[in-house]
Design a protein that fits this description.
This protein has 412 residues and is of the alpha+beta class. The protein has helices spanning 115-123, 125-135, 147-151, 160-205, 290-293, 323-332, 349-353, 362-405, and strands spanning 4-6, 14-16, 20-23, 28-30, 42-45, 49-52, 71-73, 78-81, 90-92, 97-99, 103-108, 154-157, 213-215, 223-225, 229-232, 237-239, 260-264, 267-272, 277-285, 299-308, 312-317, 356-359. The protein has a 6-stranded mixed beta sheet. β17 (260-264) and β18 form a beta hairpin.
């Protein structure tokens, strides 16, 4: 076993005796260079590092119309998202482009690093914890790593040849883990797709396969059970959008003894010490990419007090429809025909009112809801098992990176 020494920094712990420590600023210089024009927009992901924004369909951040103030990134630059550094949101860029002014961009001033090693080192869990301490945010969304805090952080520096060996080893091992995670995630996506298709099937055709079918007369609904009617949403639910009230992050008070959920288009996004509604209602997003992408749930249940902003519609079923039946119908049906816009999808209130709903008797609604809930319980159990496996693999990957970039384990 090789000789170890105290690094002198709690977040690093012991490091090999042959390694040294120096401040980040001894090797990286802040770059103030702005957008030269005609540059692609880059995004920084915790999982993937820096990639072109258009290369992924799960980035909902809006690019400013005026990008002249965006920071210019060269291949090999080190980029830091100062608001999410505590989550490991930083790394070496393999692309040339521009990033938000909220990011720090650095150039290497020495050749003492294998840049891959530094990429793994500063994204490891020990530095994420240190950047969280330095950021000192009050709540999620307000963390902000000071530039001086990042630059004066100490990094472990092995001999450059050893850095390359560590980086090669990590790349090989993490690639193997990522393949396993991808396979399990694919299984989860199939379960979710089945869950969605099952809902669509039973809210249009019921749960009795012997009942004859009929044409609904609606292209995107197709064939329905003969004893189902087609009704418009406005006839079976109240739209309570008068209880919506947008409020900016800096105006949301959290000084009260009791805090309530603050809802947007895709669920809870913050806490606040006031509320706009106290009822049992359901929420459906008014705008955002999720209306078409459906990466997140479309429907959210609210029972009690909460603050709703102007990006979610509020629905309350009338006596002719069960709460959970309507909830599942809206989650299961294709609502694309009612959505306007492509770059910025929107489901306005007028179109919401006209959504066509397959509606059986209350007794059949009750049986359908019971059936869906039973299936959901079964599917959710399987998803939870697979999700737990992904979490274990992800933790193993983080631990592996930490142990090798800090020298706790040696590449053989």
């Amino acid at each position: 076993m090789r000789e170890m020494k105290d690094s002198g920094f709690g977040y690093l712990g012991n490091i090999p005796a042959t390694w040294r420590t120096e401040r980040v600023k001894n090797h990286l210089r802040f770059s103030p260079e702005k957008n030269p024009g005609r540059s692609i927009v880059l995004s920084l992901y915790r999982e993937y590092g820096i990639v072109p924004k258009d290369s992924r369909d799960d980035n909902y951040n809006v690019t400013s119309e005026d990008t002249s103030n965006y920071r210019y990134v060269h291949v090999g630059d080190f980029v830091v998202n100062k608001m999410k550094a505590w989550q490991g949101s930083m790394g070496v860029s393999a692309y040339e482009g521009i990033v938000s002014p909220a990011y720090f961009v650095y150039r290497f001033t020495t050749d003492e690093f294998d840049v891959r090693y530094l990429h793994y080192l500063l994204r490891s869990k020990c530095y994420a914890d240190e950047f969280r301490r330095l950021s000192g945010g009050i709540r999620i969304g307000q963390w902000d790593l000071p530039k001086s805090g990042f630059e004066t952080t100490y990094v472990a520096i092995p001999p450059k040849e050893e850095q390359a060996g560590i980086a090669d080893f990590i790349e090989t091992k993490t690639s193997q883990v990522d393949t396993l995670i991808s396979n399990v995630q694919s299984q989860i996506e199939k379960l979710k797709a089945y869950k969605q298709s099952m809902i669509t099937e039973v809210v249009t055709k019921g749960i009795d396969p012997t009942v004859p079918m009929k044409d609904s007369g609606v292209k995107w609904i197709g064939v329905i059970s003969k004893d189902f009617n087609i009704v418009r949403l406005k006839n079976i639910a109240e739209i309570l959008d008068q209880y919506r009230k947008p409020i900016t992050a800096d105006q949301r008070s959290q000084d009260g003894d009791v805090l309530y959920d603050y809802y947007g288009a895709s669920g809870v996004i913050d806490k606040i010490d006031g509320y706009t509604i106290d009822d049992h209602v359901m929420l459906i997003g008014e705008d955002g990419a999720n209306l078409r992408m459906r990466n997140l749930p479309l429907m959210y249940e609210l029972n009690g007090k909460a603050w709703i902003n102007n990006h979610a519609h509020i629905l309350k079923p009338k006596a002719s429809v069960l709460f959970y039946y309507l909830f599942y119908v809206l989650e299961g049906l294709d609502i694309n025909p009612y959505i306007t816009g492509s770059a910025q999808p929107k489901l306005n209130q007028e179109n919401l009112k006209t959504i066509l709903i397959p509606l059986p008797s209350l007794k059949k609604q009750e049986k359908i809801v019971e059936f869906i809930m039973g299936k959901h319980q079964e599917i959710n159990r399987l998803i939870a098992i697979k999700q737990a496996k992904i979490e274990k693999l992800s933790e193993y990957k983080k631990s592996l990176i930490y142990e090798y970039v800090t020298g706790k384990k040696e590449v053989q």
